[in-house]
Design goal:
The protein has 133 residues and is of the alpha/beta class. 45% of the residues lie in helices and 20% in strands. The chain has four helices and six strands.
């Protein structure tokens, strides 16, 4: 059984405590996150852990709170061993469209996760949010 991780105060846009990404993948995710931030002034935080110590959405809300994220922030939290995730997008970051975020989650992020493409899921989240702008 995977060790669980308590909610975190994130200091970097990409946090990989699960060792899910290669150095090339980390660079790819960071580039997508930076592109989103420069294009739309939206910050996507991506965090990989082995397992959450509670329900994914609750864990992610607590991490969001500890990190003091604002109205233009989004967070993609992935528990790689547990195979669970949460993707929370603040209203301004979603351009006011919860439906667009749901579509992004279902059509772009989840297929990457099903294929164990953890970097691809983060890149899909970043490029999908950028397209909402």
């Amino acid at each position: 059984m995977a060790a669980t991780t308590a909610p975190l105060k994130l200091s970097d846009a990409v946090t990989d405590s699960a060792g899910a990404l290669s150095s090339e993948e980390t660079a790819e995710v960071k580039a997508a996150v930076e592109s989103l931030q420069s294009a739309r002034d939206v910050r996507l935080w991506v965090v990989y852990v082995d397992a959450f110590d509670g329900p994914p959405a609750e864990w992610t809300r607590n991490t969001r709170s500890l990190t003091k994220m604002g109205n233009r922030d989004a967070i993609l939290a992935i528990a790689t061993t547990q195979r669970k995730y949460a993707f929370l997008v603040a209203p301004a970051a979603a351009s006011g469209s919860e439906q667009a975020v749901d579509d992004l989650r279902r059509n772009k992020v989840e297929p990457q996760l099903r294929d164990n493409d953890f970097a691809g899921a983060a890149v899909a989240a970043a490029t999908g949010l950028q397209a909402l702008g």
